[in-house]
Design brief:
The complex is a heterodimer of chains A (115) and B (115). Chain A is an all-beta fold and 115 residues long. Helices cover 0% and strands 52% of the residues of chain A. Chain B has 115 residues and is mostly beta strands. Chain B is built from no helices and twelve strands. In chain B, strands 2, 5, 6, 10, 11 and 12 form a six-stranded mixed β-sheet that branches. A four-stranded antiparallel β-sheet of chain B has the order 3-9-8-7, with no helix packed on it. Chain B starts with a strand and ends with a strand. Classes of the chains: A mainly beta (115), B mainly beta (115). At the A-B interface, strand 5, strand 9 and strand 10 of A face strand 5 and strand 6 of B.
């Protein structure tokens, strides 16, 4: 059974902390994605990666960075967490290296609260 | 503009009723892909269907059916004889083929099926 796992379901951090959100997929997918989900806004793409050590900015990259050192792992980093980064964060992966119209497989999400 | 509109924020129905979730999209591309995803309370989005712009055939899968109409730029989703397990947030999404093949998600429709 294909699987995308995220390191935490719930996370509470303080303003200014550095936050790491980890995502691991076991499907040998090249493409990986980070989204944030907010009520009334749907899913918005933060960063994506088509290969190891490769990253591309999505629609809302400000305040975030990513790391992809291994094919199966894609980390989202909040360099200095702020209250407006309180959100649900969803990781996804898909088959194909590069732009693709394949379906994405999602993790269960991390609900991050920044106090 | 490239956009997906799900005007229904929340719908409540009684079990066994039929329900249609609306999706209207905008794109300047002639080739594009449309998707529906389901997000149950557990959090992870689950892929339901993908359609390309050249395939206007309606699709039926069990109690689910999809009506794709290019003339009205709509890709509506109908659940027949709804069940409590259908309660979820449903997202419609678009991938235009110009640019980076990124998903453009609608804001989602929350469906509540009452027993």
């Amino acid at each position: 059974d294909v699987k995308v796992t995220q390191s935490s379901r719930y996370l509470v951090k303080r303003t200014g902390e550095k936050v790491f959100l980890e995502c691991v997929q076991d499907m040998d997918h090249e493409n990986m994605f980070w989204y944030r989900q907010d009520p009334g806004l749907g899913l918005r793409l933060i960063y994506f990666s088509y290969d190891v050590k490769m990253k591309e900015k999505g629609d809302i990259p400000e305040g975030y960075s990513v790391s992809r050192e291994k094919k199966e792992r894609f980390s989202l980093i909040l360099e200095s967490a702020s209250t407006n980064q309180t959100s649900m964060y969803l990781c996804a992966s898909s088959l194909g290296s590069g732009p693709s119209y394949n379906e994405q497989f999602f993790g269960p999400g991390t609900r991050l609260t920044v106090l | 503009a490239q956009k997906v509109t799900q005007a229904q924020t929340e719908i409540s129905v009684v079990e066994k009723e039929d329900v249609t979730l609306d999706c209207v999209y905008e794109t300047r591309d002639t080739t594009y892909y449309l998707f529906w995803y389901k997000q149950p309370p557990s959090g992870e989005l689950v892929f339901l269907i993908r359609r390309n712009s050249f395939d206007e055939q309606n699709e039926i899968s069990g109690r689910y059916s999809w009506n794709f109409q290019k003339s009205t730029s709509s890709f509506n989703f109908t659940i027949t004889a709804s069940q409590v397990v259908d309660s979820a947030v449903y997202f419609c999404a678009l991938i235009p083929t110009s640019g980076t093949y990124k998903y453009i998600f609608g804001t989602g429709t929350r469906l509540k099926v009452l027993a």
